[in-house]
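Progress narrative, work stream C.
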Amino acid sequence: MIKNIVFDFGGVIAPISRDRAVEAFIRLGLTDADTRLDKYHQTGIFQQLEEGKIDANTFQERLGELCGRKLEWEETKEAWLGFFTGVNPDILTYLEDLRTRYRLFVLSNTNPYVIDWACSSQFSPSGKPLNEYFDKLYLSYKIGYTKPDNHIYDFMIKDASLIPSETLFVDDGPANIEKGKEFGLHTFCPLNGEDWREKLKNILQSLA
């Protein structure tokens, strides 16, 4: 029986568009953004930020050097938010319903700029921030590792006292899903931006 559901953020809760993000960083001045940004796993200073190896200020300084000018927090944040195409309020309502029956968690490769938005009243039409839909958020830049590294899964499982056989992991990244299976989690890999509610309902029924 499933007692816990772990959701990825970008691509599952909030659909993402790499192309829009590339355009946003190019507008910022990063001319080679297309070679630096990835849908699932970043590289260079982008990866260092999401792994917590550099803080937001250091990232902003180094990105500014690449862009050839000094960058401000808000414009850097707006470029990161280029990844996101909006949040389906019906999915947020569904999460509220799920939380009456399951413990809900987020396991996300992310950074302070994205979370500054997600954990604010700007996140949802109702003004409810992301963290109020979940029991706890497990964020790569705070833990120090990104999916699909073993350490981030191990940390979450131990910290939340999860029993893998009682836990469903929902992520749109195939490599992340495969790693979840290695830890004994039940898994579901929806497409980025898909309305996955009916499929999830069927999976939960099959595992009841």
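Work stream C, second folded protein:
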Amino acid sequence: MDWYPLWNSLRIALISCAAVFFLGIFAAYYIAKLPRTVKGVLDVLLTLPMVLPPTVVGYFLLLLFGAKRPLGLFFLEHFGVKLVMNWYSAIFASIVVAFPLMYRTARGAFESFDETLAWSAQTLGQSNTWIFWRVRMPCCRQGILAGTVLAFARALGEYGATSMIAGYTPGRTATIATTVYQLWRTNDELGAMRWVLVDIVISAVVLLAVNLLEKKQKAGGCP
């Protein structure tokens, strides 16, 4: 059994999750402070990939990163890097579809934070950076961790946008999701079922982690 799809899926999901973690926290922290109208508009824009069909997301990514598009052509001519139909092309797709989950979860955690704790720290002369990492983040950690796990799971299971921007090439761009489809399409049901079982195990572990984090969040508070 060729384990490349698992390895490729895991590295794509991990890289995407790391990017989404910081992007989601940054966006959630600053957008939560904005006026309601502005916040509502940005919410729609940033969470749109969550409700759009994945193939539509993939289409927009092709319009942006395609070899004949300005951005894709720039990287190809100046760096010799083709942004589509490579294993790392799937990272772009995974970031776009996983970001809304991280953003919405982190924003909810920040909005439920007791601001009196931050004000108290300010009266003691602490900087906003210190307050963010030493007060706000520890109090919101369960929600942020839950968002991170969900973003990882979404990136790991991404198929629609990934198949459009990265395609399927065994040993190069294959992921678990695209491998299951290709094996089924070629009537290799046994091979497809093996990868389905692998995916089920990973998904079960992710759901267990999310449930544990939710229980901790309900039971605990700020340290």
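The chain has a mean pLDDT of 88. No further action is required on this item.
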